[in-house]
Backbone:
């Protein structure tokens, strides 16, 4: 029987959407669908922290009535994806509860919700980094301090989880980081109610800041899913038991977008290794951050994002090309630590590129040499096989 490919998430929904979770159990692809759904801006639809909320299908009908569709991903989102999920039996009948959405322009961006899969099971989804500048600032802040959203994630699970249900906890990008942080904070008794934690291409944790023992403790129930060209999910990476590398229909950094992840049946279409070009970027960041102390990191993040907001921009969409001159001027006038870090980043990048290029040339040479040796051996064997047999005893 031929393998069935569903390409990207929307095709999976169209294929699997008629089956309830009772008919076909929750899987890793469902986790990503819900991690994408939590990007929906429901602030005009739902009252915060409702214990009994509407179905996804009803929510989408309200969105259409009020014409207030907005998917708060960094790339803007895909309305066809949301429409497909809402019209399916699998996702459209899910009830959304405990919706919380907090945005403080100078401090943090946070959103989360429960998706009720059955009367006994829920998926707690944390929204990832949207296109707000403060959201991306928070991600960079994790290199020198705990993010404000992390404590809010802890408070959220402690307030909303109950002992009469079991839970999946997950999220995309920063949401994956929040999912791990929140799950790691739970008491031993409440952690027994966590079926699995899904980190969908989220950044890791700086070992100099976080209590890694608590984070490592949930490794047995943690699944990390990353695309081939992975940069975000490699930040402060550490070895994990269950890591899936998935193929994407996009290229480069755009592979971070969940809707591009390719699906085969109820699972993702996996790749064996990361893209070599992504490895160059990851090695560059590792080396650069290793040589930067906390104070330098803090000043760099402040100077960089302050420069983004010079023209009053709040979102990445508002960073126009016309602002670039002001941004560059702001960075030029920034602290000496920031200037040095920018210079070091350039230097480390070129050193890393040279290192990877040299390794690639060396690997290529070794491969060609091995092929040449194999060819010589094969040629020698053919000669020996073609040579006429001569029996010395029969010689006159």
Residues:
């Amino acid at each position: 029987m031929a393998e069935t490919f569903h390409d990207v998430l929307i095709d999976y929904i169209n294929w699997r959407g008629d089956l309830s979770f009772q008919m076909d159990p929750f899987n890793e692809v469902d986790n990503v669908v819900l991690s994408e759904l939590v990007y929906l801006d429901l602030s005009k639809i739902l009252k915060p922290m409702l214990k009994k909320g509407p179905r996804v299908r009803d929510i989408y009908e309200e969105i259409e009535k009020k014409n207030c569709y907005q998917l708060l991903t960094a790339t803007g989102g895909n309305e066809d994806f949301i429409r497909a999920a809402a019209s399916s039996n699998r996702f459209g009948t899910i009830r959304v509860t405990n919706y919380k959405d907090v945005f403080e322009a100078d401090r943090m961006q946070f959103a989360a919700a429960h998706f009720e899969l059955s009367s006994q099971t829920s998926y707690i989804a944390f929204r990832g980094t949207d296109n707000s500048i403060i959201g991306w600032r928070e991600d960079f802040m994790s290199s020198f301090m705990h993010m404000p959203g992390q404590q809010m994630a802890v408070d959220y699970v402690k307030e909303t989880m109950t002992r009469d249900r079991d839970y999946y906890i997950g999220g995309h990008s920063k949401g994956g980081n929040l999912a791990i942080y929140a799950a790691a904070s739970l008491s031993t008794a409440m952690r027994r109610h966590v079926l699995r934690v899904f980190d969908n291409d989220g950044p890791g944790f700086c070992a100099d800041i976080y209590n890694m023992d608590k984070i490592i403790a949930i490794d047995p129930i943690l699944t990390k899913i990353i695309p081939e060209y992975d940069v975000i999910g490699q930040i402060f990476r550490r070895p994990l038991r269950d890591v899936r590398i998935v193929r994407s229909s996009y290229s480069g950094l755009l592979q971070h977008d969940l809707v591009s992840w390719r699906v085969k049946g109820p699972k993702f279409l996996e790749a064996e290794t990361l893209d070599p070009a992504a490895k160059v970027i990851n090695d560059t960041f590792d080396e650069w951050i290793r040589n930067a102390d906390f104070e330098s990191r803090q000043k760099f993040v402040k100077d960089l994002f302050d420069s983004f907001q010079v023209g009053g921009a709040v979102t990445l969409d508002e960073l126009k090309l016309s602002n670039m001159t002001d941004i560059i001027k702001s960075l030029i006038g920034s602290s000496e630590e920031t200037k040095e870090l920018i210079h070091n980043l350039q230097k480390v990048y070129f050193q890393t590129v040279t290192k990877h290029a040299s390794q690639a040339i060396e690997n290529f040479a070794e491969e060609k040499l091995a092929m040449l040796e194999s060819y010589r051996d094969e040629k020698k064997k053919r000669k020996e096989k073609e040579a006429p047999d001569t029996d010395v005893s029969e010689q006159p």
Observations:
- The beta strands are 5-7, 95-104, 108-116, 121-126, 166-172, 194-200, 222-227, 243-246, 263-264, 267-268.
- The first strand starts at residue 5 and ends at 7.
